[in-house]
Specification:
alpha+beta; six-stranded mixed sheet; globular; Twin-arginine translocation pathway signal sequence domain-containing protein; single chain; Ysc84_actin-binding
Length: 185
């Protein structure tokens, strides 16, 4: 591999990560800007998915990630920043990152909220040095009518994820594999 082709490969491989960081508060004015975005995303979620108010009222805490940007061309990545709120008060700020390799092309943006339904799940999240969303998450899936399932099973699950506000060229969005780290904005 020549130096020119290596350079071209490195630029092409790193481009999705540069695009993923755009518009996500990197270099922002800090916590105030993140809180404003979290407020907007929360209001949008409550307006479009009113059942999420039930989840919020019964949860020990809510991590709102108001804007996740993902991009990929074979190699992909995503980034976003948000806030953990307990009793509707911000207690910590978090970043979310993910990386993927495989058949993919395009970009998308979306928001998501993690509802910690038990104090134990919230404590586990807050005490971990880097929490990774796994396959054990319960998704409150939106039906065609725009309603979420907030049945007893969802309310007893330790962590419930709600993905909303999708826009872009990659079909589907999931929080599985997202890594969350506490940050100081």
């Amino acid at each position: 591999m020549t130096a020119f082709s290596r350079r071209r490969f490195i630029v092409a491989a790193s481009a999705p990560f540069a695009v993923a960081a755009c518009g996500n508060g990197v270099g922002s004015t800090g916590g105030g800007r993140i809180d404003a975005r979290v407020d907007e995303a929360t209001n949008f979620m409550y307006d479009t998915l009113p059942e999420t108010q039930t989840l919020a009222s019964k949860s020990a805490g809510v991590l709102m990630m108001p804007l996740i940007t993902e991009a990929g061309f074979g190699i992909g990545g995503g980034f976003g920043r948000g806030a953990l709120r307990i009793d509707n008060v911000t207690v910590d700020y978090y970043s979310s990152t993910n990386a993927s390799i495989g058949l993919q092309i395009g970009a998308q943006q979306y928001a998501h909220a993690l509802f910690f339904m038990t104090p134990a799940s919230l404590n586990s999240f807050r005490s971990s040095p880097g929490w990774v969303a796994g396959a054990d998450l319960e998704y409150a899936v939106s039906s065609n009518s725009g309603a979420l399932t907030t049945d007893t099973t969802s309310l007893l699950t330790p962590v419930v994820a709600v993905v909303f506000g999708q826009a872009g060229l990659i079909a589907g969005a999931t929080v599985e594999g997202q890594k969350y780290n506490r940050i100081i904005p």
